[in-house]
Structures are given as structure tokens and as C-alpha cells.
Amino acid sequence: PRQSRKRKSLAIAYEGDGAEPPRAPWEPRDWREQLERIREMRSCRDAPVDEMGVHKCYDSSAPPQVMRYQVLLALMLSSQTKDQVTSAAMLRLRRRGLTVDSVLQMDEHTLGQIIYPVGFWRNKVKYIKQTTAILKQKYGGDIPSTVEELVQLPGVGPKMAHLAMHIAWDSVAGIAVDTHVHRISNRLKWVKKETKYPEETRVALEEWLPRDLWKEINWLLVGFGQQTCLPVNPRCSQCLNQDICPAAKRV
């Protein structure tokens, strides 16, 4: 006799039978109003990042390949260094003719003298020499055009890679998160739960922040962090978000 096959019963949900509706994606409270107020506070564009940031450090009249290399070098120098110091170091380098070949021909001692006093300048000398050699051998003197390849270069982290994509390639692959963006995102509760590292913050922001804001958010928050939402003693009394910021010190 043939064995009867048991049919699997499928549970079908109909309207009004108690099935849970899909949940709306999470987003922070008041974030749109907070963002508009930050835009207003940044409208003067007079923070150090505006006047001496990486986007101001390269020779805009140079051939595209040279320009992209200069952008990457400025980003490498900028790590844990004030914009004013990075800008001055880049100016000294450019006066020497800043290209892949000129840096390869330069000895480490000379390179160190030129970039001093950027933060961790000794390590950066080694990273710059190593990365420049890789660019010459593997990329024909240009820089990689993907985040995945950029972060493989010595001395290049995720924040630098995303900014390189933004500035050098005019491509938005993700949000560039530095210490300012990391700090402010946590203060405004723009992350579901507190994050400890910038890379965690990047992932958390990308989960909800509309993609058309990814490029702007770094520039906005860095300048805001330099002028108002300082690491120590933030100027809450001068901040337009004082009444809707979870971390504000209300007087």
C-alpha cells in the first residue's frame, strides 16, 4: 500500500487576524531638527576644517593622478593632527613638488624634517614611503578607487579611505567617522546604543542615516566639533540644539 504523504500546513496571515505589522526602521529622536540647527551653526564655514581641511591641502591645478595622491598624503598626515599643522606640512611638501616620484626619491630624514610636527611623524614617514612604493608598483602611481583596497595601504584607516573616496574620487562608499563625528553621534544619541570606536559609529550611522547625507555629515560634524561641541567643556550655552540634545548642560 502507498504511504500517504503528510502535507505541511502553511500559516497564512490575513488582515485583521492579529498579525504584527512591519516595524518602522529605527531613527533617532529629533535628528532632523538637530541636523538643520547644526547646518545653521555651520553656515559661516569658518571652522579650521573649512579653511585648512584636507580638501584645501592639494594642488587643484595638478593632473588628476597627482591630485589624488596629494589628497591621500594629506589624509595620512591629518591623523591625530590639527588641521593647521597638516595644512602647513602639505604646503612645505608641495613646495618641493609633491608627486609619487618626488617622495620615492626623498630620504626618510628629509621627509621627516618636512612633515614635522604632525602627530606620530616618525611612523608617518615610514607609512608614506611604504604606501608610495605600493602605489607606484601596483597602481601606476595612482591611488586605489575602492575602500577595500585603500585600507590595505600602510597607515590608511577606514576614515581616511572614505574621505579619499569622497574627495579624490567623488564617490560616496560610506560615512567618514573621525573623533568629532564619533563623539557628537554619541552625545546626540544618533546611535542605538553607545559606541566605543569610530568604526562602530560608522556602521551604526549607516544603518539609518539617508545615503544622500553621508558625504555632508563628516564636514558638518567636524566643524561643529571644532567650534561648539568640543571634546572637553562643550559650549552648550552657544548651541542651538541645547533644548533637544540629550547631553546638553542646561543652565
TrEMBL record:
Region Disordered, residue ranges: 1-29
The keyword NAD is assigned to this record: no
Sequence ranges assigned to domain HhH-GPD in this UniProt record: 77-227
Keywords: 4Fe-4S, DNA damage, DNA repair, Glycosidase, Hydrolase, Iron, Iron-sulfur, Lyase, Metal-binding, Transit peptide
Catalyzed reactions: 2'-deoxyribonucleotide-(2'-deoxyribose 5'-phosphate)-2'-deoxyribonucleotide-DNA = a 3'-end 2'-deoxyribonucleotide-(2,3-dehydro-2,3-deoxyribose 5'-phosphate)-DNA + a 5'-end 5'-phospho-2'-deoxyribonucleoside-DNA + H(+)
Pfam families: HHH, HhH-GPD
Signal peptide: none
Cellular component terms per the entry's GO annotation: nucleus
Cofactor annotation: [4Fe-4S] cluster
UniProt xrefs under HAMAP family: Endonuclease_III_Nth (MF_03183)
Protein name per UniProt: DNA-(apurinic or apyrimidinic site) lyase
Organism of origin: Erithacus rubecula
